[in-house]
Design goal:
498 residues, seven-stranded mixed β-sheet, 16 helices, binds FAD-MDL72527 adduct
């Protein structure tokens, strides 16, 4: 029965493409990807602004070193610059937090000396490191990273900054507030108060200074797709429901019902839809419904929004060596919880602008980063409204009322119906068990010799590299390997031998 099993992969992001690649290489012939949109890549999405390549989704290879499969593939396809390939770049370890040379402007239009904010940066990074250490020992004093860091800042500032004058101390606390916003973006959460302290250290960083794809991240997907048989992906083919009730006496244990009514029979289905999609649609996506422990983990795990706002200027208003521009609000005290007024002050959540390398023909481009509910609200505004708020912000912080952006382009991941957010994190109350529940294949109650029918991949299913492209890629390979080992242990019915 299982000679050449039919395998359907739902979703053509990097996890789906990586699963298909592994299966095809192992000799499986009936592999098909069903992708809701008209393109492969999912959250890897490259676009252009003028003649400049911009990434709407994933930006960097996090930790580009030998151990990182995305780095190895990108190198194999010749997609990286020489600097990224150097041994020095691969071995520099910054613990997932690369240091960028900043320009700091304040809400009263002052430009600060970088040295002025260093004590805040040092304290914050020490506290982040402390936050990640609870994962081994347990016994964390607070439920969330936010509560822990805020309390420790309060204690430490009273002791360590007691001789600093009042206004400098207040500036340092405002800087801590900005660092919280930056961290929300990195983690993909609305607030660090929603990020679990006990599981924070579950995320593992790799050595290597983060690098980009000069020709765009999508080049990686294109190269991977070239190795797959043509026609393997059906585009514009959203899956509505996965019927996985194997008790019915049917030739194939799974039936995949598409939005357009097409019914596809399969032996196995690998589900790679984002956690945001699972959270919203699990009820209709699975029949019978998912087991309760899996469902609870889907609900507990965090999936937040991080968006980019690209802004183009005729000339640079920042220093030549500047890599990141930080707007520091002088009225924001870290230790007082802010109640956001989305309409009036969503822009206050914009944590920084990273500076894109200027090209000869094309000028000066910044990428603004904004996470959380403010980011989701920003998605509902028109380009003009977003551009208006960014213009006001830049004019106020530089004290220069003539600066005018030429145009903007932003991402809208929360309103993307197939993603519904940006990436996952371990929320308050979560442990790695929730990730394990999420990746556990179905049916869960079966004997060892029985095959699994529904498998789960995607960034949110990786126990320590969740939220990344390499985590997603490895999860796709993991689920393909699960099927490959099952069939290779069945000896003569191995597809590669049939
Ligand atoms: C990274 C980075 N990066 C920025 C932004 C975003 C993300 N990531 P996919 O969604 O790709 O594929 C699923 C497919 O399924 C998709 O095509 C759908 O259309 C389809 N689908 C859905 N429903 C369907 C249905 N019903 N039927 C059929 N098809 C359906 N990662 O490595 N470097 O710089 C960034 C960034 C704005 C949005 C990122 C980054 C995340 C990656 O993009 C993401 O993980 C993978 O692409 C997901 O691939 P996939 O296949 O799983 O899903 C301590 C601690 C902290 C923890 N975090 C620290 C790490 C920081 C992560 N940082 C990211 C930052 C940026 C800037």
């Amino acid at each position: 029965v299982f000679i050449n099993p039919k395998i359907v992969i739902v979703g053509g992001g990097i996890s789906g493409v990586a699963a298909a690649e592994s299966l095809v290489k192992a000799g499986f012939r009936h592999v098909r990807i069903l992708e809701a949109t008209q393109r492969s890549g999912g959250r890897i999405k490259t676009s252009t602004l003028g003649d400049k390549i911009v990434e709407i989704g994933a930006n960097w290879i996090h930790g580009p070193c030998e151990e990182n499969p995305v780095f190895r593939l990108a190198r194999q396809y010749g997609l990286l610059e020489e600097k990224a390939l150097s041994l020095e770049n691969q071995t520099t370890d910054v613990n997932g937090h690369p240091v960028f040379y900043p320009n700091v402007f304040t809400s009263s239009g002052r430009k600060l000396n970088v040295e002025d904010i260093i004590p805040a940066e040092e304290m914050f990074s020490e506290l982040l490191k402390e936050s990640s250490e609870f994962v081994n020992g347990g016994g964390e004093p607070f439920a969330s990273v936010g509560e822990f860091i805020r309390t420790r800042v309060q204690q430490r500032a009273a002791e360590e900054w007691k001789d600093i004058d009042k206004s400098t101390k207040s500036l340092l606390l405002c800087m801590i507030s900005t660092l919280f916003k930056l961290e929300c973006g990195i983690t993909g959460a609305h607030s660090m108060d929603e990020v679990g302290l006990g599981a924070y250290g579950q995320y593992k960083t790799l050595p290597g200074l983060d690098c980009t794809f000069p020709g765009g991240f999508e080049g990686l997907i294109r190269n991977m797709m070239e190795g797959l048989p043509s026609g393997l992906v059906s585009y514009n083919q959203p899956v509505h429901c996965i019927h996985w009730n194997a008790t019915e006496k049917k030739e194939n244990p799974v039936t995949i019902e598409c939005d357009d009514g097409e019914m596809i029979e399969a032996d196995h289905v690998i589900v790679t839809v984002p956690l945001g999609f699972l959270k919203k649609h699990h009820q209709t996506l699975f029949s019978p419904p998912l087991p309760l422990h899996k469902l609870h983990s889907i609900q507990r795990l965090g999936f937040g929004t991080n968006n980019k706002i690209f802004v183009e200027f005729d000339s640079a208003w920042w220093d030549a060596e500047c890599e990141v521009i930080i707007p520091l609000w002088e009225d924001e005290d870290t230790l007082v919880l802010q109640i956001p007024d989305l309409q009036r002050s969503w822009i206050k959540k914009l944590s920084c602008f990273t500076v894109l390398k200027p090209t000869k023909r094309f000028g000066h481009l910044l990428c603004g980063w904004i996470a959380g509910h403010e980011s989701e609200y920003m998605e509902t505004l028109s380009d003009q409204e977003v551009m208006g708020s960014v213009t006001q912000l830049v004019r106020r912080f530089t004290g220069n009322p003539t600066i005018t952006p030429k145009r903007i382009l932003r991402s809208q991941w929360f309103h993307d119906p197939w993603t519904l957010g940006s990436y996952s994190y371990l929320a308050k109350g979560c442990s790695v068990q929730d990730v394990e529940n999420l990746m556990e294949p179905l049916p869960t109650s079966r004997s060892q010799a029985q095959p699994v029918h529904v498998l789960f991949a995607g960034e949110a299913t990786h126990p320590c590299y969740y939220s990344t492209v390499h985590g997603a890629l490895l999860s796709g390979q993991r689920e393909a390997d699960r099927l490959i080992s099952y069939y290779s242990s069945r000896d003569s019915s191995s597809p590669a031998k049939s």
